[in-house]
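User: Hi! Is it possible to get a structure for several chains at once, not just one? Here's what I have:
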Amino acid sequence: DGGITQSPKYLFRKEGQNVTLSCEQNLNHDAMYWYRQDPGQGLRLIYYSQIVNDFQKGDIAEGYSVSREKKESFPLTVTSAQKNPTAFYLCASSIPGPYRPSSYNEQFFGPGTRLTVL
Amino acid sequence: GQQVMQIPQYQHVQEGEDFTTYCNSSTTLSNIQWYKQRPGGHPVFLIQLVKSGEVKKQKRLTFQFGEAKKNSSLHITATQTTDVGTYFCARVYTGNQFYFGTGTSLTVIP
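Assistant: Yes, the chains can be modeled jointly so their relative placement is included. Here is the combined structure:
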């Protein structure tokens, strides 16, 4: 089955610890995204990557870091510098990188990771 | 200028009633997408609108894009309990960045 996997589904960490959330896709998509969702709010973009070894900050990148060493993988690290890390984190992918027309840019989401910092 | 505002934030309807959510932007949109997120789930793409005045239907769902391409709406006719969830609009910005509205949470009362 093709799709996006995120692990783990639930994650608990102590305050001050860094934590890395996994996101893997086998859809052969160029672009990958990380969003944060808080209760009653929409999705806010943390980081996105349109191609391997390249990524850009979104609206709320402070306290987060990413890497894109492989097309299939886009892990997100929530660092201790993130002041309010407890949230639902969603990873997404879409077909186009920088060289494809924007009409083919439906986003496919993973099941999400719910992070709780104690 | 990148935000899209969505109203209402919450809507409770009796099963069988109609439902509409609106998405508004202060700037012209190149396109607008709609997603549905079931409770406890993840957003799932519903549709993309590109042309001014465009209307698309999916069974009981009707999607519209305004003539000025600054607003969009999603209308559900005769809601069912399976329609429960949060509906998001999203604008696609240059560089394939996506900006999501705050969503409308729909509750359907049987």
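Residues 9 and 104 of chain B are 5 Å apart (CA to CA). The two ends of chain B are 39 Å apart (CA to CA).

User: Great, thank you!
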